[in-house]
Amino acid sequence: MEHLFVAVLNGTIYGLLLFMVSAGLTLIFGMMGVLNFAHASFYMLGAYVAYALSGVLGFALAVIVAPIVVGAVGVVVERYFLRRVHRFGHAHELLLTFGLSFIIAELIKLFFGNFPVDYRVPAALSFAAFRIGGTDYPVYRLIMGAVAVAMFGVIYALLTTTRVGIVVRSAIFRPRMAEALGHNVPLVFMGVFGVGAALAGLAGALAGAFYTTNPNMALELGVLVFVVVVIGGLGSLEGAMVASLLIGVVTSLAVGIDASFADLLGVVGLGDWARAVGGPLTLQVSSLAATIPFALMLLVLLVRPSGLFGDKS
Amino acid sequence: MRTKVILLALAVAALVAAPAFLSPGLVNASIQMLIAALFASAFSLLCGQAGMLSFGHSAYFGIGAFATIHAMNAFNGAGLLPTPLLPLVGGLLGLVSGIAAGWFATKRTGVYFSMITLALAELLHALAPHLKEIFGGEAGVSAMRMPAWGFSFGSNVEVYYLTLGWVLLCLLLLYLYTLTPVGRLTLGLRENTHRLRFLGYNVHRLSVLVFAISAMFSGVAGGLQALNIEAANYVVLDMQLSASVVLNSYIGGVKVFLGPAIGAALMSFFGYAVSDLTRSWLLYQGVLFVLVMMFLPDGLVGEFAKRIREGRFGLGWERLSAGLLFAVALVLAIVGFVCMVELAQRFFSTDYRSMIVGTPWPPVTLFGREWLPFSPVTWGLPLGLMAVGLGLLNFASHRLDPERGGVS
User: Which chain A residue has the Cα nearest residue B242?
Assistant: First the structure.
């Protein structure tokens, strides 16, 4: 029971982290129709910038400054790169961000080396929040979860109640019309791109300290974030939230299951046959945990192609 | 038309004659170039002609490679499948997996399609280390090339000719495919699927067909790779390979038939040539890709072909001088950028960090000269070169562009 509780809690917090990254991605897609391949690179950039700054500024200040730096990078990417290739079409924009993600990863390797860096939670924050089932539960996980929830609240409130939020939503919904009404839509695009990048950077700065900070983290998380966005429905913030939590909890639970398909078949008396066949049938669910999100995504695409909350097909 | 045929015949003759003039290392590099060219062409059938951008093509390449390795072990190069025919197995498995994956992936178009291909490839990549019987775990699977048809296949020159034969055959088939009615419909998939549907074609079935054919030729390329290195490892399923085929194809230009092949061959040649000199090759590749995307959306070969078609190689004196200025400026900017990257790479490397003991920080050696970390020359020279180069580039491109008041 305690294991289940811990697994669900871990999964929820990992899901919230996924949400912090996928929120920006899904908003940018909904608005500009660009699937930003470099988005997970912003997450990685956040972790590395915070790591580099934490030596000078201290951890707390670094976590605040890193998202601002990453947001500025995002603004530059939108203004000077994406806008230039806009006239060549969406495929070109996707490819450009793909190339940028490649460059960011290589630059990180150039400056910090192709191995994990020693970026860790400060001693002041690495204590146990509570004890459960004989193990300590780190308070830092709870902090990450709380930041993500607070962020969701702030974004939701901004989008639904303020004037800026209305302009942004109208620019997402009907960019031409919003422009005709005199709003500076390119500026809105740039702003949302920057904010989305900054959120990913914040997630990176927080999570990099807890998980590992290495040059592959962008790709590892990036693929998961795409899965989240597709399952939730491209362009939907609520969908991203639900899908992130779903993926986080499901993978976290799967890691703890030692059973295999052979055991399942054993219930109907085919266990020995399955073990004799071997191969995929005897693989434990825990070793398949990494593949579950993809299987889930294929399932969603077959059953409900536009995603759980998506309406654009 | 006739010049094209003559040029092609010359190129094929050069490829056939090449091993006589090349060192064994270069022959090996040529084999890699040929395989990369075939893989890029197969990929571009899907993304260039049918307009479906796949981010997971390494899966079909890898499946082809593993199928071929297992066939090598099973048949020992004799019986039904002598060594030269082994890539057929790769092609067959590529085709089958392409039908299965394509059926899923082509249910959606646009970015969704790209995401599904990426997810399928990552699914396989995540699964592969656990399936030891098929993918051999960390060590991979290895096999031996057996003699067949009077060839020993022991030297890499024989492997070169085998690869060359397969690649030329596949490229010919891919070209003939573009001339068939299905090949024309493939372009329709890119341009206007609604219209195809109104005309009564089954768009989904057509997309699956194109996907499967592309996967089949990728599988052949994978099979050739397996034959060449006599081993396969699940690393081949990595994202890295999918990424490099995308980069190479677009650098060459996906809308011209030979663009991706030339792009991939060039890039893998440069990769081979500079891999001893620099560790930042992938960075240069990425930068080149982004520059091509931003300034030459048709790719290097595509742009070249377009200019020849439009006859924009007029040889006026002013135009020639502007072109020369452009070339010089480009070289300056590239030299500055490369200096900058290489210096940074050396100063931030772990070797250098371990050398720092106490204050004056030691210099690094680059291009036969010592560079101090805090001297203004070290950073000023590359930056200055880049600035001058970029300024001149701007000036020269204005003069070359008739729409902006330059000479035509």
Answer: A98
